[in-house]
Amino acid sequence: MRPLSTACVALLFLLPALAGCLAPEDKRTYVPESTPFDFDRPQPVTTWYHYPGTVAEPWAVDATNPLAVSEANITPNLAGNNMPYFTNATYYGTGYDTFEPTIGITSSGAIFFTSWNGAGDGTHIIRSLDQGQSWEDIGPFLGGGDGGPGQTPNSNDPYIYVDKFTDKLVKFDMHALTVINVEYSDNDGTSWSTPYPTHGYAVPQDHQSIASMPHSNAISGEVVYVYCINTGSPAAGPQCSRSRDGGHTWDAQKPGYPEGTTQCSGLHGHVVGGVYGAVYRGNPSCDGPAVYRSLDGGTMWSEHTITEEVGMQDGWHAHEVATAVDDEGNVHATWIGNDLMPWYAYSRDQGSTWSNPMMVAAPDVKETGFPTIFAGSEGRVVVGYIGEVNDIETNASNSGWSGYMAIMTDAFAEHPLITSVAVNQPDDPLDMTSDCGNVRCGGFGDFIDVEIDDEGRPWIALAHNTAGFEEAVIGTLMEGPALYGDLTPLPVLPAGGSSSLKMG
Question: CA 20 to 30 Å from 427, out of 240, 300, 373, 397?
Answer without folding.
Answer: 373
